[in-house]
Amino acid sequence: MPNHSYIKQKKILDFIFATISLLILLIPLICIFISIIFLDRINPIFIQERSGFSKINFKLIKFKTFKNGKITKLGGFLRKYKIDELPQIINILKGNLSFIGPRPLLPEYNDHYSKDQSFRFNVMPGITGLSQIKIKRTNNWNQKFTYDTFYAKNICLKLDLLIIYLTFKYLIEIIIGKKKVIEDHTPFVK
Question: Against a cut of 0.85, is the pTM above it?
């Protein structure tokens, strides 16, 4: 069962680190926002309904990387280095997302999870998590849910610190070209 004491502490830590991150990244975020407008000629913000803690829906905020169904000029760069995820700091400040947890998915999937997979809704969803750093192909749903369930059942500071370390390692490997993410947007349910 989840460690409820740690979950409360984690929410406070998330808010503190999100506030600091937003202050540090504010100017770069504004520059990216403006660059998307001028280079890709689109609204720079992508907002989508997602299912969060206890299956409560919220609006996930990201930088827009697609136009007419295709990745934009700047979008490829933003996606490769996960920069498109940075506006989710606002979701953390609003209290509907954490830095670490299962990725929030579309609400239309809610009725399709097994009982075990539904454990992912016992913790706050996150920007990064075990499945994001352990799986190469983004459409391996069974493996994703196995990692999500493991995280939800074993949430603790030690596990979060490990995920933070592995996330930074993963990002560095992407930057130096040692690791490649294969994005496949096959839906969980057809």
Answer: yes
